[in-house]
Specification:
31% strand; FAD/NAD(P)-binding domain; 24% helix; 27 strands; alpha/beta; globular
Amino acid sequence: MRVLIVGASLAGLRTAEALRASGSDAAICMVGSEPHAPYDRTPLSKELLTGDREPHEVALRTPEQLADLELDLRLGTAATSLDLAGHGVGFDDGSRLTADVIVLATGSRSRSLAGTAGYDNVFGLRSLEDAAAIRAAMTTATSLVVVGSGFIGSEVASAGRARGLDVTVIESASAPLARVFGAELGSKLGGFHEQAGSSLLCGRTVVSFKEAGSSRVDGVLLDDGTEVAGDLFVIGVGSVPNAEWLSSSGLDVTDGVRCTASGQAVGAEHVYAVGDVARWWSPRYGEAVRTEHWTAAGEQAAVVAAVIQGRTPSDDLLPYVWSDQFGHRVQIVGRPRASDDLALLRDVEEGLAAITGHDGVLSSAVVVDQPRLFARLRRMVRDRTPWKTAVADSGGLVRARP
């Protein structure tokens, strides 16, 4: 069997490893668009920016470990087309590869803002090069402006404060992650900014960037007329799946490759998708979900590897993500929605913890700096604990929102 993995980041690597771990002797070719061997993106917005880790320390595997996988590893080559009928993938160097099974793992990229291209001090953050450039800029900058207060934006702001920069974060919603958690819980997470000396401006959008010469900007104009000055700017307003190259394939690539609950691309029996580019059907949530988290990449890879080998894996994947920011670890399990029932178990002073419920069942938990409590709540979410039982049994309840 020939397996072609398109994408050489975490999800692609884990797929290859899962195949080998389960005894597969398939000929595996993995092709990545970046020149680097697979590396961990998680530290890019954290330890790499603060200087606690160096670029060479984010590699996921040593050269010897990669060699043990017996891969045909091709780097610096981007996929440009997928031929379903011919089982082939075309690449930007003019080459074409065919395989019995094709795994799409091309990931995502940071979403940009119109009018920001070409400036030397305005960055997105997705790649190792992005992180290195921001880190270098932080060594000479005195003020950092971050657009977006999601995980990436908050982590970059945290790194900026750790390096002594004046930090301003601009968020269009009423609070950080309010679209996910609702305003109440989002506001409590936003309090970490204030405690660390990061200025958080919510309910504001960027209208334009103020040029300082032809290649730099020195401020942003907000929708209320406020001008915010800075000498380093990072855009953290979400991500876009790298699926444009599949537009002529016939696959549904609306917000990622639409897949079954076992990762098979809908309409193509020999094609699978894993990681940030994939939108898997979730039996738990009754809809297709694109889960852009480190844990999901590995779990999806294990499922796909099992299916490729004719085994039936568990298809009930439970989303999990964490974020390290301003000296706190935020852990989230499940899929919170702003419209869910909310019970605040512990307020910020006691160590923030909250649960959400949907259709009478515990749907997610959000916990800060309390690993034991999080482990307990994670089991409850996994077991679909009834909402009323979860509220009654969680302990330490501050209040519940019906």
